[in-house]
Amino acid sequence: MSVSSDALLFYGFSAEDVGDWGEIDNDDWEALYAEKKGVSPQVYDGKNQISEEALREYWRKTRKLLLDEPCEIGLHCMDGSAISYVCIKPTLTTASRGTPREVKTLEIDPAWRDQLKKFCDLMEIPWQESKWYLASWMG
Fold it and tell me: Measured between alpha carbons, how far is residue 88 from residues 57, 79, 108 in Å?
């Protein structure tokens, strides 16, 4: 079995710094986000069968919300000891398996703080001031 490691550079913060994030599950944060934005995950018909049409519509709406959202949740550390982070999407730079990536700027857009704060308030993530992080993922 081989192990892969990735470098992660992002502007945001880590759950390691603020403790428990409650019901946030990194594997399904998108569904929780959509629900908090009013997109119903109800995809069953009257016979308790999954409606393919309702499922497609749910994911269409969810993808649209996620594309418009400037923040996201990800993982750093390693399998079995994963730690969540929240970041501004365009700042996330990943160097997979040591492949070099150019970092074009480390300037901070003043709008990022408000974007992160709004996202964290919605997702009920404890707030802290953000900063640049260099982290890793091994798995």
Answer: 27, 23, 11
